[in-house]
UniProtKB/TrEMBL annotation:
The name this protein goes by in its record: Transcriptional regulatory protein CutR
Summary of the function given for this chain in its UniProt record: Member of the two-component regulatory system CutS/CutR, involved in the regulation of copper metabolism. CutR suppresses a defective melC1 gene, encoding a putative copper-transfer gene, probably by altering copper metabolism.
Organism of origin: Streptomyces canus
Keyword hit for Transcription: yes
UniProt KW keywords: DNA-binding, Phosphoprotein, Transcription, Transcription regulation, Two-component regulatory system
Residue(s) carrying 4-aspartylphosphate: 51
Chain ranges of the Response regulatory domain: 2-116
Amino acid sequence: MRVLVVEDEQLLADAVATGLRREAMAVDVVYDGAAALERIGVNDYDVVVLDRDLPLVHGDDVCRKIVELGMPTRVLMLTASGDVSDRVEGLEIGADDYLPKPFAFSELTARVRALGRRTSVPLPPVLERAGIKLDPNRREVFRDGKEVQLAPKEFAVLEVLMRSEGAVVSAEQLLEKAWDENTDPFTNVVRVTVMTLRRKLGEPAVIVTVPGSGYRI
């Protein structure tokens, strides 16, 4: 899942990003509304965690722009105000969910995952294919009933492949969904991660390389 965190409190923004990355999400971070609009125009995000009171461009205007562009991106709006009227206004602008500060990180993560599931074809909470069972919420993977321990990026790549339901996923798509914008697009990190993932999942191999196209399960 690709997430953009937009928050002008840099310590909070960086802490949220670090936490979401530990949950196997690809996360970019910006600290003002103008930078958010720039990133949205370049990258495809599943979810934007958007502070409402932003410098340069207000969070409301960022949200309106996402709606105006007809993007599938879901918006989780954050604010220091917990008033019902503020929550209602945020939802009317086009936000998909609303979370007042301070918040529990576990709740933020759950809301981001729930919104991420709504950006594509609805799938069950637990993904199953070719003897693999993947639970995004618990961050658990089983192969033929045996638990498999994966690093965050390995988990992220497997989740993208599982969600494709047998369709071929290119290396570029994996890079976009499982890594943030600071990753060198010319690196071999995707190939290396897929190789490690294959080894950990064991035999017979379930991740198939489609020459010149990408990978599928």
